[in-house]
Structures are given as structure tokens and as C-alpha cells.
Amino acid sequence: MEAQYVGESDGLTFWLARPQDYDEVMAISHGIYAGNDYLPHRYKIWMTEKNRVTIIARRDGKLMALESGLVVDGGKTIVMEGLRVCPTERGRGVAGVIQRVTDRYVKQLYPSVNTKRLTRRDAPKPGHMSKFTILARRAALTLTGEAERFKSFVLGLKTKLDSIEKTEGSTTINHQLVVLKDDQKLEALLLNPDLSTRLQLPGGAIIQDWQPLKPMESNLEILRRRKLTWLANISNDKPTFMSFYTHPYPIPFNGGSLRLNIDLYGEDLCLARQALITHLEQVMGEIHGTVLVHIYMPQALWAGMRKFCEGDEGVKQLGDYWEQMFLEREMS
Ligand SMILES: CC(C)(COP(=O)(O)OP(=O)(O)OC[C@H]1O[C@@H](n2cnc3c(N)ncnc32)[C@H](O)[C@@H]1OP(=O)(O)O)[C@@H](O)C(=O)NCCC(=O)NCCS
After folding, report:
1. Which of 111, 180, 264, 321 is at a distance of 20 to 30 A from 232, taking alpha carbons?
2. What is the DSSP string of 250-286?
3. Domains defined along the chain, listed by start
């Protein structure tokens, strides 16, 4: 496949990324996100994904940087992902250059795009990204353990849940979570105009494994592609809680591990506990080796969820409180 030229700036040439650039992209990616990098797994998918633009920068033929974006929200928004610069080139403004070139190219290709969104771990450095507005912050809890230890971890969580419910006098009957298997039910739920307020969606979006998507018709196809397993308390038709997990995928952590992302929406701790148990049970047949579980949730849930998960010998918390930030800026 011949490389498609995009432009040049600051001594760099820019090209659309191709499947055969994979090894070079991986060569600049060592250690990114402390081993949690999704790109080794996603790169090939990105190459054919509809409405995605992935650009690489080269100097004297050598790969220097990569940036990618997915056009969502009915063509109005580009969600930027994957930004990285070759370690020896960092600190020289290359990230700024590739972002400007990508913005220009995206505007040419998709003139309707007027907003750029991205998610990142923790707050940007002062001065960096000053043109961005912070739309939301989500709390994140990370657990890790060997796959075979998760069965007893979940059993322990169930025992704890029973005892909490007895003490607090709440019962799961009042708080029933249902698996949303029916596409139509799920779509009706997601397209309900007051979903965002009821679930306090961060910045009015569903952040699926770091990808913010407005709950709107044109994004349903993207969510469907991800083959997520959704839960919600739909006993009344105005659910106050919703969650899903993204199928675990391989990451470089610890010489090769699986990453499982669970996203929780709504502030009911009782439902959040149940959702965690259910998602871990659902995923049990898919996990092996070392597993990193990242649970993203409203800040109000974090302390309660951490307490709920502590005390197991095999599955332990990794690191402390951290945040997923959701940022936006207008594209000129
Ligand atoms: C983060 C990283 C891409 C920064 O690249 P860099 O070329 O060293 O960054 P510099 O500080 O020299 O460049 C500054 C420019 O990049 C932008 N920038 C820096 N870090 C950024 C980030 N995480 N997201 C978006 N833009 C960023 C700055 O806003 C600035 O833009 P400007 O020139 O328009 O003002 C680079 O350190 C890297 O590859 N790190 C590992 C991967 C990673 O952590 N990616 C972050 C994804 S959120």
C-alpha cells in the first residue's frame, strides 16, 4: 500500500498511517501509559475504521509521531486519540505540530467538524492545552490480579454485598439491574432526552473506554461495533444507573496483560457494587493471565467502591485515586 502524503511543516512530512507502519509506531510507544497502551491492540482496527483519520509524522524517513481522531456526534466532533512522539523528540513541540496538521487535514476532509474532544489521565500541566475547557472529571479505581483469583474475589464481593444489604436494610429487589440484550430497548434508553441529566453523564457524553460519545442516533452504530454488555435499572422506564464493560484486550503491562474497562454512570453505590459483580461474572470466561481492571465512575462513588473492593488477597488495588479528564476545544 503506497503512503498517502498529507503535508509538511517544521521539517516533518505527514502521511496517512498504513498497516505496514505498525512496527515503527510500536517502536516509539515503549512505556506509554505505564504499560496500559491500547494502540498495539487497536492500531490494525483503526486502519479500516470508518470516519477515522490516523496521521504519522516522519523526519528523514524516520517515524517521529502519531495522532489519530474519530469523527463522531453526527460529523460535528472529532475525538482525538493515540497522540505520541518519539522519546528522543519529546519536549520540542512536535505534539503541537502534528496536532495542527491533523486539525487542518480533518477540517479539509470533514468541514462539518467544529469541536475537538479528548480524554486524558489527570490534569494537563499549567499552560499546556490552555485552549481546552475541562468538561468533566471521572474518578478511576484500578484493580489487578491473576485471572484465576477473580472467582474468589467475586465470591467475596457477593458475601460483602449480602451483609451490607442486611445492615443497610436495602435489598436487590428494589434495585434490580437488568442486562440490556435487546438493541431496541438499549437505543430507547440512550436516546431518551433526559438520560444525560438523570445519569449526570460527564459533559453530556457516554465515555466508552476513553471515547466520549454524545448519546445520539449517529453514535449508536459506533457503540454497536464495540459489542458492549450493558446494565441498567430499567424496572421503571427512567433508569438512574447504567454501566457497561468493554471486552478485555491485551496491553504491554507486566510483559503482557489484559485490560478490562468498566464504566459506571449514576451515583447509587448499591447499584455500582452490583454492577461491578455482574460485569466481573460476565467477563470471567474471557480473562487469563494478569488482568488490570479500570473502573470509571462519578467521584462520589470512589471511596465506597474502594472500600467494597479491599481486603482480598488475590485481587488488589493498584495505585491510588486517579482521574479521567474530559476536554474540549472549538476548531477554528
Ligand atoms: C505527551 C507527548 C505527546 C507530548 O509531546 P511533545 O512533543 O514532547 O510535547 P511538547 O511539550 O514538546 O509540545 C508542546 C505542544 O504539545 C501539546 N501537548 C503536550 N502534551 C499534550 C497532550 N498530552 N495532549 C495534547 N497536546 C499536548 C502542547 O499543548 C503544546 O502545543 P502548542 O505547541 O500548540 O502549544 C509526548 O510526551 C509523548 O509522546 N508522551 C507519551 C505518550 C503520551 O503520554 N501521550 C499523551 C496522550 S494524552
Report:
1. 321
2. EE-GGGSEEEEEEEEESS-HHHHHHHHHHHHHHHGGG
3. 5-113 (3.40.630.30), 137-330 (3.40.630)
